Amino acid sequence: MKEEALGGPRIPVYCFLPLFVIQTRIMKGKHLGEFEELVLLAVQGLDVCAYGVAVKVVLDRETRRDISLGAVYAALGRLENKGLVRSETVSGSPIRGGRRRRAFSLTAAGHRALAEIERVRKRLWRLAGRPAGGRS
Amino acid sequence: MTLPPRWLSGLARRVLRLRFPEAIAVELEGDLVELWMLRMDCGRPGLRRSLIRDLIGLVARPGQAGARSSGPECRRYRPAIASGWLQDARQAVRVASRQPLFTLLAVGTLALGISATAGIFTATNRLLLRPLPFPNPASLVVVENAPLSRSDTAGFRLSPGVDELGIFAGAGLYAQGGVNLGSDDAPLRVLATVASPGFFDAMGVRPRTGRTYTREDDAEGSNRVAVISSGLWRQLGNDPTLVGRELLVNLRGFRVVGVMPPDFDYPGGADLWILPGADSQVTGGAFAPEVIARLAPGVGFEQATVALDRLITERYQARGAELRDEDLVRLHPLQTYLTRETRPLLLLLSAAVALLLLVSCSNVASLLLSRVTRRQPELALRRALGGTRWQLGRLLLVESLLLSLTAGVIGTFGAAGLLQVIPMLSEQPFPGVDLAAVDVGLLLTALAASLGTGLLFGVAPGLAAALQPGGATVRIGTTVAGSRLRSWFQSSLVVLQVSVALVLLSVTASTVATIVRLAAVDLGFDNPSALAVEVTLPLERYGEPDAVIGFYRDAAARLTAVPGVDRIAAAGVVPGFDSVGIGLRLVPAGTPAEEADRFGYALRLVASPGYFETMGIRVIRGRGFLPTDTRSSPRVVIVSESEALALWPDGRNPVGEHVTISSPVAAQLYEVVGVAADVALQGPRTERRAQFYEPILQSPPYGPMTFVVESALPPPRLMPALAAALAEVDPALPMYNVQRIEDIASGFLAAHRLAMTLMAAFAVVTLLLAAIGLYGVLAQLVSQRTREIGIRMALGASERRLLAGVVGQGLRIALIGVVIGAGAAGLATTLLASFVPDLDAPTWQLITMTAGALLLVTTIAAWLPARRAAAVDPLSALRSAD
Q1: What average pLDDT does the structure give for chain B?
Q2: B209 shares its domain with B297
Q3: Which residues from B are below 8 Å from A81, CB to CB?
């Protein structure tokens, strides 16, 4: 099933290894998992357009994985619980039959968390001696 | 752009609402639709699969956005897989209430089957299986053709030879008749039983007060003793001092010696038991008793039969007479004897309802099975979410049981209603059996029937659900092999239904044919505007012929004077009334005494002038009786057609011939003045016996006298005037047995008509169920083949061809059923003919006709889905395929 659902070329798993390594404690007593971080970034990137399907589509495209909508919502739920994002109900577009959707946006804590992560990463990349985002 | 198929969006909507509060469910639904659209734009394959996967992903994860932890909003959350029977039941109720039409159809089908089954089987149990309410009922037997001897004082009794055999612990004679009870001013008409003392020995029931009468009572002068029923005792005012007091029976004083217990009711309906010698008029002067006996301990049924056969053979040999087959003694277990009329009808109906239940079960099984197909995504989802095969199977089983138990409740009411009409299957009352009672037995039968059916039809869909492919794989639609197996299974169910319907329909057709044949039989009498009323003339006051003749003249005059009465006539016994006549031997005058034995017995009837016209009995030759045929004129008789032929086989005109009546009384010469048509006194099913009539003014009847009144007025308006007119003649004579002549004629076949009506109802229901079953299977096949049909149409198949294809498929299934059913019907009716005595075996024409009708109905049932197939839009059919 996975094979069928995945579209496009596959990226070796080790490319993501560094991300797994970084498991930093960001806030008091609260981890930010890898997937949560991606979702948080997507919400930031989508700005006002951030809602479940959009987050999923962006992440699908960028990670070339087929991410389950449920996983997206689960992550968003956790982020909301941690106070990193907030949500509000807004009216939906005709494509979804006008059904309402839940729009997410970063809270101040969310912005801080992302900044913190970026800082940590940059430091670490410097430590690794290679420019960030490079490929082997 | 196409939206997700309706079933899928419906499924998603339901699942989401099960799991989330409304607001969130709407949002998520929107997400799913949006994703569907996006994927379709990208031309991605496996749209449905992805949607289901998304759905599972949404439902399966805890801690959704918006469904935060355990807020009040989340109260509706329940695990998708029910964990207990109770939850299954709740789920089953939900499923049932979501598809009201389906539920109604299934419950209705089952309720029909269950009510018919519970009703008929309860009746069968009460009448045929449950032991009679007498001590040791298995040793009670009824003796047919028992050897009797006659004494002048006590009338008939069992031959002393029977006692010497030592095979019976007790044996007695009995016969029933009506008596007038009480004084002149307010007589009561009750059913009395003339029973010899041995009757009580045989029954072995102790009276609740007093004693039963014994042989010592059975002597001239002391034999006016009576035993009464509890019912009569209550009716007479619950008087504890009644025992020992006198009761007026037909104006003669009888001493009450005992009261029987309330549950003693034999023969059925009896309120009073008296000795045979005590009142000769109860049975119209003729004592044609039945014999009941209790086998002595250790004596078997066979042994007793053989001993009695030997006895009767010796007697016949001693007399030098030829022993014919019908003279042989026959023993019948009491229960068999009492249910001899009802048993075949009940067995017939039992077989019919068993088949009906089978068909309704198979129909509901088929319905549920197709629902399993439609519910496959849901079931797959349940499997994917961790439901075990057992849980899935159990859920489906609980759903089936819910349907069947609901049907059982409705069916119990239906069964109780059915039990109200079943007593009409027999003219004889059943002693001590309340057929219409609603008791624990009935409830248990209904419960057993509904549980049984629930399990029976629930197993197939349960298995189908349990055999769902498991694991994380969620599959849409069915595998080809699976659907083939299922449609094969469902088709064979339809074959079964069609063949059962054919069997029931042909049996019904043959019962209808039988009844039509019997109803067409000329009973020999017919007058749509006449009615008969009976009175009993007590011998105490009407012991002399002149008194009876006087009463007749008086009553006839007053009844004729009643406004609205066109004419009246009187007779001793009219057709259909259960009074017994006397068989006498008519012999042509001048026949030597030793040749008199050649002539058989004929039933002696008494008729007044105008009787034949009023009853609508044809006088074939000569004349009817005239007011001038009195005691002072020459003796005359009218013989029936068959008696005329028996007396003069050469076919000469009997009018003017003379006969003698060979009886112990002096042989007197009678002139035959007419020949009347044979009358079927006991209906078209019994053999007609030769009859002859004497004029009422010459040989008046003793005891019962029946007036036949012809009038255009309806009986209810006429009755009070008639009663008043009779009361003017003699106020002590209660009028009873008021019946229209028409009703007498139709009453002969009432039981058979009822059985036929029930049979026909069962058969039609079965036919309908078979049609619905066929429709269901074909509709499903058509919906499965939508794509194929679309391709065919796109390739230029004509509508007619498509129609023909589907109808042909239906007809093939039906035809197999018809072929099997025709064989089974032939077999079934041959089998039936062996225990339903006068059921005609269905002709092949009848079976062919029934099969034709069946095929017509199935064609209609097949045509409906076929039309739907032909209406398929090829484009959407092609696109709808996955």
Answers
A1: 80
A2: yes
A3: 63, 68-69
